[in-house]
Amino acid sequence: MSYISIKVEDLSKQYRLGVVGTGTLSHDLNRWWYKMRGKQDPYLKLTEVNAHSTKASGNYVWALKDINFEVEQGEVLGIIGSNGAGKSTLLKILSQVTAPTTGVFKARGRIASLLEVGTGFHHELTGKENIFLNGAILGMTKSEIRSKLDEIISFSGVERYIDTPVKRYSSGMKVRLAFAVAAHLEPEILIVDEVLAVGDAAFQKRAIGKMQEVSHNSGRTVLFVSHNMGAVSRLCSRGLVLKEGSHFFDGTADEAVQAYGQVNISSTEPDISQRKDRQGMGDFRFTSVRIENEAHQPVEEIRTGSRFFVHAKIKAESISPKKVYAAVCFRDALDNRLFTLSSSLFGKRVSLEGETILTFEVPRMPLSEGLYLCDLYIAEGRGDTLVQDYVRSAFKIKVYGNDYFNSGDPQPVGLDRFYVDFGLVKNHDKEIIGTKTKA
Amino acid sequence: MDKNQDIPWSLVVTPKSNWLNLNLREIWRYKDLVFLFLKRDIVTVYKQTILGPLWFIIQPVLTTLVFTVIFGNIANISTDGLPHVLFYLSGIVVWNYFADCIKNTADAFKANENIFGKVYFPRVIVPLSTVLSNLVKFGIQFLLFIGVLIFYTFKIDLPAIGLDIIILPFLIVLVALLSLGCGMIISSLTTKYRDLSFLISFGIQLLMYATPVIYPLSEAPEEYRPFILANPMSSLIESFRNIFLGTGEISFSHLLYSLIFTVVIFLAGLIVFNKTEKTFMDTV
């Protein structure tokens, strides 16, 4: 039977802006004076919502405002939100590093947090000594650690260096050792912040496996904060989206990832009309570009295997209409060209006149998880002749999920670059194992 | 709403904290951490040094020699007829314990900022383990003192150590609690007001001159004595000397004053520390 393992009620956290310095003492005295007379803290009223980009007029902001949620035992809750949405503040409160300004949070069971692994490593101590120290900091007793020592050492994969001071370790080794300690904690509630961003692909795979094992097999509650949407939709059963310190969305992990795409709606249509680093004659110019998912919602992230659209807006700088070849070219972060959506592949040109919107449709995103850069291109001739406008890295597209066929069994991170449609049958159609014909 | 009210919440966090919320059960659960911190403090200080733990001894020896030359031979301050070395060493050993405890616990929040910012454990563990690791250091220096004392018993007549020695543990516990209390107050305040960390390093040095470390209480002018005795460390050091060297005085009333002072400071320290530990991450 499952029970509520975490309950958060009206949780808020206030921070003071600017330098803590002159005025600190006077604010403290003032606050104390109000308190002595049984009045509310005068500075709580002056607080504003935590919108980073707008200049605040007051001195205090709410990093978190009236957060309410419950987590059931055994649930894996993903917490997502853009930078500064309050994720880390929430985790800090939940892991008791700092106290809330108002509100209550209750929990059943021991809480352990992995906010950046390797906390409290002492570089002069050996690997083994650090296992004990780090384990104890995370709340294990000496005998618990001793009973798991061999397991931890072999999980970390640094057996040879275990009696060497940690200062001689490579940074990857340190992280692996630290994660190994943390992975062997046995709290009822585990808080994880971005640990999967470290280590090589093989280690990430092991780390993800360990997290899944922790939540699925032993029924422990996990709170997972990440910018990695793929990891969130793969690992979490539920998702909570924060926006500017308040509760924005709560639902299944996939819905939450979608909702998160909406949070950044303003930035999903980058304005490229002012870009100077472009080539071409310039009779026609790209002004903006937008990516939409299958539901025609503007997003920044596309799930592997899903349908998406690229809308490019083109403005005429001259009156005469032109016929051009139009293309979107996909490149990876290392500048390798991957594929191009070009009208020249159909042997056709598009006629442009005044303001035009071109929509490219891709029925299934073939790329694996990662960040990709896209170029926009229009030219009157083939083979880079009579180029009208060419904007390199006009926009970015983030791909997540790695589950091309929606089989529920995604590929591990970082192995394949592409997925293709294919069919697999046994004994001439006796048994169809995978899609036989292309959709 | 809550389906399972029969399972009690094991943790409830609210903005307000109790005044004296010393959760002893929790500290007990983390007892291994106390000893691991203790070990870390002792083992790592002199790693990659040639003399290693000998530094624990070299430091008081050199200080004693300097004091002997300057205060004993040049300034000619009386040492109650005792050999200079023995007199100064006895004061330095006790005073160092007090001073080091304060200096190290006063740093508690700032020095462990990166740990405190990431993980929760009862924060009191840090000053507690600091006081204990300094106790080990004190133990080593105390053995040095006993060694020197034995050496001198062959040279000169020293009064035999009497039954008074049973109050020695009491004295040491008082020094420990007093410095722990002061350290906790200072560490809590420095998270917000950094000024104190400047004050503390030379403040302790100045305080030493208000304590009978380099002079016996009996030599202090009558009108200064109340001020010197207002310092709770004075009667503790005087008593320590009395136990081993026979000079100085053990005054019940003075010790009682030190006891009360210590208890008050210690409780105040706990309260302030408890209040700070919840929010210090926002101000440090």
Structural account:
- The complex is a heterodimer of chains A (439) and B (284).
- By secondary structure, chain A is of the alpha/beta class.
- Chain A has 2 domains: 4-262, P-loop containing nucleotide triphosphate hydrolases (Rossmann fold); 284-438, abc- transporter (atp binding component) like domain (Coagulation Factor XIII, Chain A, domain 1), CATH 2.70.50.
- Chain A contains 8 helices and 22 strands.
- Chain A has helices spanning 24-36, 87-94, 127-137, 142-156, 171-183, 201-218, 229-235, 253-263; strands at residues 4-16, 48-49, 60-72, 76-80, 102-107, 111-115, 189-193, 221-225, 238-243, 246-252, 278-279, 284-292, 301-303, 308-316, 322-332, 337-342, 350-352, 356-362, 370-379, 387-400, 424-426, 431-434.
- The longest helix of chain A has 18 residues, at 201-218.
- The mean pLDDT of chain A is 80.
- Chain B is 67% helix and 1% strand.
- Chain B is an all-alpha fold.
- Chain A binds chain B through residues 1, 3-4, 7, 15-16, 20, 24-25, 28, 92-93, 95-111, 113, 115-116, 119-120, 122, 124-125, 129, 132-133, 136-139, 141-142, 165, and chain B through 2-4, 7-15, 17, 29-30, 32-33, 35-37, 39-40, 43-44, 47-48, 114-121, 192-193, 278-279, 281-283.
- Strand 5 of chain A pairs antiparallel with strand 1 of chain B.
